[in-house]
Amino acid sequence: MAPMQEPRDIQNDIHREARLLLRAARVGSLAVIEDEYPAIALVTPAVTPEGDVVVLLSQLSAHTRALDRDPRCALMVSGPPAEANPQTSPRLSLVCDAARSDAPEDRERYLAIHPYARGYAGFTDFGIYRLSPVGARFVGGFARAATLDVERLAPRTAALQDQAACRAAMAAANDGLGARLDEVAARHGGSGSGWRMVALDPDGFDLGREDIVLRVAFGRMLRVYEDALTNLADGATHG
User: Fold this and answer.
1) To 10 degrees, the CA torsion angle through 157, 159, 164, 166?
2) What is the value of pTM for the model shown?
3) Do 89 and 124 meet the contact criterion of CB atoms below 8 Å apart?
């Protein structure tokens, strides 16, 4: 008997939950293959608009050297538990291929999310690695575990890969909606004024002030980056 398929709207909800969890993650566990056995390390991820993960790693670390020998790896991120039981935490496990990245946009993305790293990111032993998912498993709560379609974890449409449009929308928000950004930051636990949009993707954006970065999710995925301005003006954000 063929396995029962979940309705498409439920699948869409699960993929969206997984995307939002990944994009909001500021820490994760990276598993690598070291001397024929798995080894695990704490990493601080950032997520590109198209859904790949970038991390800053040092060649002095054993897990980095292991990745250079064998690029197969896994990454797990999790959210806060819904109850006292830690097993109620939502979590996403990705199976990935890793590669060193010299792309300026990957480095820019990482430092936008982790600005404190600017103090050491320029050291010669540090480099950006891009983790490209080839498999994904999400647990969103009791009886809500699913193997995901990695192609649906992030959009691949041309409109949402247009980085010039992304930068233009960010500039417009920072130049014309400063007071609104401060209001949004306050709703998400930020204090003071002068918050700026430091990263934008189809699912939300990140507000930065000094070394603090706050994640803000949109109520729905963007169709084009210009919609971010409409969402901000209309208050169409979570939280």
Assistant:
1) -90
2) 0.90
3) no
